[in-house]
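During the second year of the project, the team shifted from modelling isolated chains to modelling whole assemblies. The rationale, set out in the original proposal, was that interfaces cannot be judged from single-chain predictions alone. As a representative example for this report, we include one of the complexes processed in the last quarter. Its constituent sequences, exactly as entered into the pipeline, are reproduced here:
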Amino acid sequence: MKLLSNFWGGGAFLVFLMILQDHRLLSFAGINPNLLLLGILPLGFLNKKNLWPTVGLFLVILGLSFFWWPFWRLKILLLLLLVFLVYFLKKFLTGHPWLDFLIAVLVITVLFYLLGGFLTGNQLSWDLIFGEAAYNLILAPLFWWLAQNLFYEKI
Amino acid sequence: MKLLRSFFLTLLCLVVFIVLVVYRQNLAQYFVAFKNFISGFFDQAFSEQAFQELKLENQILKLELENLKKSVSTSPYHFKRAEVFSNYPFSDNLFLVLNVGQNQGIKAGMPVFVSENILLGKIKDTKRALSEAETIFSPDWKESVIIGPEKIKAVLKGGGVPTLELIPEEAKIKTGDSVFNISPDLPYGVFLGTIDKIENSGEPWLKAFLKTPYDFHDLNQVLIMTDYETFK
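Output from the structure prediction step:
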């Protein structure tokens, strides 16, 4: 039962983040932080045994984003894929979850735009990319704390 | 007892999840209103003097608008009103998803307006019930424009703040000059905004920044010109 409450709590939290991101409510000087990334990335670090709740949450987010952001499915898929890769590649990082989380935020933010630009042919604006990376890093501690203490720990 | 508590907690989380999904748009409007309320405290218009000036300016503009409405004939084009369904969620672009699509006759390339006289962008892609609009705030946006009464030619380049480039150095332009479209794929002479700042970096060309009479993030509705192709 606790697993379910964590699952739906995590789901509600991620939907809330999607609403904030969609309406650019935390955007500053044209830079919109990637709240979806910050919300789902801790899953890659906190889950140790059970993989299915993470996959389930990913599928819920994927389904909703396909409906809300139907023109950018490729980018959402790319983002989720990059986060999912962290689950398998984290053993190659420093071994300190907190530091690894920050490294992953930075690397995924840059990789996401780089690969996204390559796939869609859109121009890359490095000012915005590094601006967003910095903004994401500033918000990262809050999301790490929220994920550890409120939503994902028991998943 | 513990099981019962967990059950209710699960139920509560599920209800919150469903409410967030179903009432997404309504909730977002409250969030936007709250954000505007907070940012209003840091606005210069919050001072009494600035407020009075704005009030006076508003009255003058209302009068001018009334006179313009009387003198200008109505647009020969037809428009379809569309709600903004969602925004591009990442930093590298500013697209909109509109709640009308192929079922309502919307096609790629149709011009999108903020109001009947202010151009915002054009339809980029469509699905059965939704369409994607590329706007002048997209970094990939480029169009030919003219500036001010002298009709100085320039190129409008999209971005968070759209810029006007390739303006001849000797061009007589000033802050506040109006900018109009002359790109053939969009209606001729439609208003885009005014010049906000002019930069001369020593090159043979001037660069200026476009100021729009609306805030992109506050757009809830737009107009799609549905019969531009037939007039082209």
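The first strand of chain B starts at residue 79 and ends at 87. The interface with chain A takes residues 3, 6-7, 9-10, 12-14, 16-17, 20-21, 24, 27-28, 31-32, 35, 85-93, 95, 97, 124-125, 127, 130, 132, 139-140, 159-161, 217 of chain B (CB under 8 Å).
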